[in-house]
């Protein structure tokens, strides 16, 4: 009975009835589907409502003429932008054309189907505003004085004993590929803290087992960093030109931490929340380290620590400078995107 002509006519009458009540197509579909499950698809409901809005209230489907129906590029763009997650079949049904016809038209209007991008956080309007304001401020400061050579930046990251990477392999058609086990839920790891500038690593520390970074620990690290800076970068330290950059983690923004940094007389570079794309350690240094660690396995702390230290020591100053000097272009990208993550 579900596919009979009588029921189809009845369903179309219900669609028109709900349209005249001012209901939206999707809401009408839900109401009808409650009573007649599976009798109509949401795409069909949308197509019929589009027909009604165009002034055609007849309930008869027009017989095909053998030619694809025409519709404007602007109509297609409007529907796609309002429903970007629908399939090609869905759009073809809305416009009552074949999938191949719709595919060709998508190419004409320069639309492609892509995976959505992974981003660190879904930014609120306030988040975007904060990022935009800070990046505009830093760009203005940079134009007045190139302070990139004076930036000291740092963060912390976990380094693992076993660094599993998914591998690609050639195999005969139909042959089952090899398997790679994922890392466990609680892998053996060490927490690494470091600070660096355009010349290289200034201070590096591995935390002890079960040790965490709280405000007291972080303040001690800052004192150690200041001593290391005085020894390895005396000209920068003595001139008082340090432009210090770190993120907004709680130990970093604690009242005593802020007071300590103020006593150092360092210039603090503002960092907007949820912005690892603007933190050199995140977008550059740690990424390079994790790539070097791929498929590496270590049996003890000393092996892992030695590898990390040798990795950083093997890099020329140009490597570090490249990471810091990316900042102005990233600031500009955020401005161009209105505070959002750069595409």
From TrEMBL:
Gene Ontology cellular-component terms listed: condensed chromosome; nucleus; site of double-strand break
An MF annotation (GO) of this entry: single-stranded DNA endodeoxyribonuclease activity
InterPro entries in UniProt: Mos1_HTH, RNaseH_sf, Transposase-MT_Hybrid, Transposase_1
Entry's Gene Ontology BP terms: DNA double-strand break processing; DNA integration; double-strand break repair via nonhomologous end joining; mitotic DNA integrity checkpoint signaling; replication fork processing
Leader sequence residues: none
Chain ranges of the Mos1 transposase HTH domain: 8-56
Pfam families documented for this protein: HTH_48 (PF17906), Transposase_1 (PF01359)
Top-level taxon of origin: Eukaryota
Protein name: Mos1 transposase HTH domain-containing protein
Source organism: Polypedilum vanderplanki
